[in-house]
Amino acid sequence: MIIKKSSEEIEKMASSGEVLVATLDMLAGMIRPGVSTAELDTAAERFIRSRRATPTFKGYRGFPGSICASPNAMVVHGIPGPYRLKNADIISIDVGVTLDGWVADAARTFPVGEISKEAQNLLAATAESLHAGVAECRPGNRMGDVSSAIQRVAEGAGLGVIRSLVGHGVGRSMHEDPQVPNYGKPGKGPLLEEGMVIAIEPMTTAGRPAVRVAGDGWAIFSQDGSPAAHFEFTVAVTAAGPRVLTPWHLSSEPAAEQLAEGVASPG
Fold first, then answer.
1. Is the N or C terminus of the chain more exposed, i.e. has fewer CB atoms within 10 Å?
2. Tell me: the pLDDT tens digits for 57-101?
3. What gap in Å lies between CA 182 and CA 240, rounded to an integer?
4. What pTM was estimated for this model as a whole?
């Protein structure tokens, strides 16, 4: 069942989103060669709790971290640990924040130092596909309009769109109806209505879209070992159009341009 939110409830989710965005911005400043994913996790938990919020992921179905930290060919659900970032890595950071009972969920993939042209294209096109999907989040559209917009941009850039992983509704629970696929046909799927809040999260690879699950039962890798990217916004469908509740703090340059230049952070 899709649970629509009132304008007051969306404002509460936006407050959760503010904490989440500040967390990602803080982590962006830490990302450099030599930093471990465990250090990023510790800093994120400390920061979130300092804002009187809680890390949504910690303890969720037994997940031990406050963030998901997924380097290189790992797509999502990486458990933070001893891995230390290296020059030319990419690292996807997924964060959930719960404040006053309301959840926000967002992710970015960051370059570490100088990255390859292949990785630059992966990050830039995946970020662009996210924005294309968000633009379709208007009352009267269908979920397929969102999904197909993501697919068109990502596959147009030569990326593999992972089909076994999807976005989702979000609210008082981290995962609500409806599912938000990253591929589909325009005009198909659930009707988008004012008050719906969804996590749109394209997950792509620079190679084939098939994935495998690691032995820990959490981490998901590209099956062919190609680098993977993950970008995510929490988005409210409003009468005025899409409202991103977890926006990037960007300069005047478009996100895709910043990423294509291999800067340290899109935020």
1. N
2. 999 999 999 999 999 999 999 999 999 999 999 999 999 999 999
3. 24
4. 0.92
